[in-house]
Amino acid sequence: MNGDSDMTLAFELEALKEVASPESVFEDARSWTTYIGVVSEKPTYVVTNFTRKNRVRQDFFSGPRGVDESLEGVKDQFDTDRYVFIGTTDDDEARANELGWEYLDIEDAAEAADWTMGSETTPEEIEPDTSRDDWP
Questions:
Q1: How many beta carbons lie within 10 A of that of residue 17, not counting itself?
Q2: Region for 100 from its dihedrals, namely left if φ exceeds 0, alpha if ψ lies in -120 to 50, beta otherwise
Q3: d(CA 25, CA 106)
Q4: Beta strand extents in the chain (DSSP E only)
Q5: What is the pTM of this model?
Q6: Under a CB-based contact definition with an 8 Å cutoff, are residues 59 and 36 in contact?
Q7: Model pLDDT for residues 30-44, shown as the tens digit of each residue
C-alpha cells in the first residue's frame, strides 16, 4: 500500500480486530497516510477500550456517532486527496461508495500492505477442555 500519502484512512472496528497486531498496522499506515482512525456503530467505550488495549493512536474515532455520520464528519474535517474505508462486509462497501469513500476489504488491504491477519478463532471462542487427564 505504498500510495499517495495525502490520504485519510478509516478502519471499521471489526476490520481492525481481524489483524494480528492493530498497533503495527497503525504504525505502518502512518508512514503513508495523513490521518488514520477507527469508526464503529459500537459505543464509544468499546472503541476506546480496544484502541487503548492495542496501543492504537488514532487521529479520529466515531465517538457517540455511527459510522455514516462519522465518515461524513471526517471527510468534512480532514482535507486530503483520498478517503479510504477499510471494512469487512458488503454493507461496509455500500456505505463507503454512498459516502464517497474508496473501499478496501481488510483481507485485500492486509495483503497489499503485508499486514498479518489474526487467527480465525479468538481465545474466548475456544471451548475449554473439561476432560481431566489427571483424575484417577
A1: 16
A2: left
A3: 11
A4: 7-12, 35-39, 60-61, 82-87, 102-105
A5: 0.83
A6: yes
A7: 999 999 999 999 999
